[in-house]
Every structure is written in C-alpha cells, then in structure tokens.
Amino acid sequence: MNKLVLVIDDSITVCKIIEVCLRREGYEVKSFPDGIQAMQWFQSEEARIPSLIFVDIGLPKLDGYSVIRQFRAEPAFNQTIFVIISRRDGRLDKLKGRLVGAHTYVTKPFKTAELIAIVQGYLGIPE
Questions:
Q1: Rounded Cα–Cα distance for residues 60 and 115 (Å)
Q2: Which of 18, 16, 15 has its CA nearest to residue 118?
Q3: Rounded to an integer, what distance in angstroms lies between the CA atom of residue 6 and that of residue 19?
Q4: Torsion sign over Cα 42, 40, 9, 103
Q5: I want to staple 93 with a disulfide (CB 3.0 to 4.6 A). Which of 6, 57, 65, 88 is the partner?
Q6: What is 4-123's CATH superfamily?
Q7: Do residues 59 and 35 touch, judged by C-beta distance below 8 A?
C-alpha cells in the first residue's frame, strides 16, 4: 500500500497541484479544505493514519496551528510528519509552527520539486 499524504488547504488549486505532483511520484494523496473535515474523515471506515500531512496556517474554522496541535494530541499520529505551507514567512510564524510540532515550513508560492524533495526526504521514494 502506498504511503498516504494528506493536504489540508482551503485553496482547491493548491490541493490539486500537490495531489497531481505527488501522485505522479507514486504517493496516495487525500485533500481537505479545512481541518474539521479532515478530522471528520478519521471517523470513517476508509480512514488511515497518513505518513505526512501538509497543513495551511490560514484555514477557515480552525487555523493550521490548532489542527496540528489536535492531531499531535492523538498518539496514533506520533509518527506522522507535519509540514506547514503558508503565505506567511515571518520568524514568528515559523517558530509557532515548530512549537506545535511541525517538522518543516514551506512558504507559498512553492515549487513542486521542493514539495517532492520534502516528501521523499521524510518518506523515501515509493516502490
């Protein structure tokens, strides 16, 4: 089974770009427009723990920091890698990301090659 990558971003375009580039590399990708829907998905039968989650900070309903904090509170996500993707690139934003448990911080606009390199660096190249 391929490694699952979740994308939580309210931009449909960003979700599609990440989905297409990572699927082409052999990863399974699932996207959500906000953290609430992502959390609800984990109540479904098809849900499984992702290897890596991309999270936008500026999400509707619940910001990305809160989303990561809630996932991190669940022991099932101890091995999951969290990567923040955001238009904000201030030191304070990056520090807050580290404090909630994000492994990496990517500033938008990003290059797909950068995202692929991050995913492959953490998860390896799919078989």
A1: 23
A2: 18
A3: 9
A4: negative
A5: 88
A6: Response regulator (3.40.50.2300)
A7: yes
